Amino acid sequence: MRAISSTRTKARRPLALPASYAKLLRELKGEICSTQARAALTVNRALLRIYLYIGQRLSEHEGKRGWGEKVVERLALDLRTAFPSMRVFSRTNLFYMRQVYGAWSGMGDTVQQLVGQLPWGHHLILLARVSEPSARLWYLEQAVLQGWSRSILSIHVASGLHKRQGKALSNFSTTLASPQAALAQQALRDPYVFDFLSLGPNVQERELELALVAHVQRFLLELGVGFAFVGRQVHLEVGQEDFFLDLLFYNLKLRCFVVIELKAVPFKPEFAGKMNFYLSAVDAQLRHPEDRPSIGLLLCHSKDRLVVEYALRGLGTPIVVAGAHRPLTGQRGGQEAEGAPPPGCFWREDRETCRASPGRPSCEEEVTRNAFSCTPLPQVGWLIRSSTESVHAS
Questions:
Q1: Can you give the pLDDT at residue 153?
Q2: pLDDT at site 3
Q3: Which of 30, 126, 127, 324 could staple 299 via S-S, CB 3.0–4.6 A?
Q4: What 3-state DSSP class applies to 259?
């Protein structure tokens, strides 16, 4: 009995693992995941090549005698019989292959390389929803460059992003150095489309601000690449007076703060003067030595181009004025993008890691499908210094 008892005691003892075991396990798991991702990418690109090859061959036979729709239908049936595990070989998909091939054929090698990097589902979206070749090429380039998921591509196509990107009125040419001016101009849009909000026609600025913060995931997606949320109603003390910024962001690609002021009325010249003051205060109190000059974004109900140009002329701080389009009550925008973070987190559309501020737990879940990282949504009263440090840490 003693021998049996001794054996059971030994069985209960946990295995003593060497100190380097955990590190080795992490390395092996990471290598396996990387290999799986590379293998999936290789398979997807190989499938895309065969789809385009089929499209090319069908295009070569298009219009020839005897090659009508019934023949393509028979070809689809024979391919499905030969490869029963590949459900893609339907009559409809064969026609899609021919159309996708036709959309990109005749373009240069650079375009063909981009075509090979975009998943098949993305090509179907561009084919079905973007009729203008130049616009389709723009979305192709941006989707590859930014790593857009299929749902995010759909959102940007539906909002006509190619018509809005870089179109905002600004004074960047006179207030920023040439490389930064061009980057900043392309990073901003006009108008901004808030079709994910449902507000009445007489909405107040504070209501709009709260609604945007409540939908900060979609708000950041609409702002564009590299934006990180810092806070709302950010307090600035200048002299003996208190001032509050509607919304404060940091753009990790431009490496500067972006102050956003919301105006539920048409643009007025005094808005530019107030924003000029805010930017001077942010640069003096919050800007780090390595940061670029802060940028101001005035989102107004509407604007007169000439009034904006006169108002920005002569100012020493970079300011941009854009419209804000939103639906009326009862209208609703698109659904949440696939791969969205859980409630209480917000995303940035870039591949840098955004960490929580000191003393706040970071969100461990990464939205790997869209290569977004997430952090807890800052609350009112969160110390601005802590949030800026967290942004710079990334």
A1: 92
A2: 53
A3: 324
A4: strand
C-beta of residue 268 within 8 angstroms of C-beta of residue 302: no
Instruction: Return d(Cα 73, Cα 78) in angstroms, integer.
Output: 9
Tokens standing for residue 135: 């616009």
Question: For residue 48, which of 144, 135, 130, 132 has the smallest C-alpha distance?
Answer: 144
Tell me how far apart the alpha carbons of residues 200 and 205 are, in angstroms, rounded to a whole number: 12
* pLDDT value of position 284: 94
211-220 contact pairs (CB < 8 A, 24+): 212/247, 212/262, 213/247, 213/377, 216/346, 216/377, 217/336, 217/337, 217/340, 217/341, 217/346, 217/347, 218/333, 218/336, 218/337, 219/194, 220/346, 220/347, 220/348, 220/349
d(CA 223, CA 298): 13
Query: Residue 5: its pLDDT value, please?
Result: 53
Residue 319: predicted pLDDT:
94
Residue 3 or 43, more confident? 43
Query: Average pLDDT in the 81-100 region?
Result: 90
Q: What angle do CA 221, 227, 232 make, to 5 degrees?
A: 95
Q: Whole-angstrom Cα distance, residue 389 to residue 1? A: 64
Q: How many CB atoms lie within 10 A of CB 91?
A: 16
Write the CA distances from 171 to 8, 300, 303, integer angstroms: 79, 17, 15
Sequence letter at residue 22: A
Query: What count of other Cβ atoms lies within 10 Å of the Cβ of residue 129?
Result: 14
Higher pLDDT, 13 or 350: 13
Q: What is the pLDDT averaged over residues 90-98?
A: 91
Q: Which is nearest to 326 in space by CA: 380, 371, 263? A: 263
User: 192 in helix, strand or coil?
Assistant: strand
Q: Taking a C-beta distance cutoff of 8 angstroms, is the pair 138, 126 a contact?
A: no
Alpha-carbon distance of 376 to 373, in angstroms, equals: 11
Maximum average pLDDT range among 149-158, 207-216, 275-284, 323-332: 275-284
- Reported pTM: 0.62
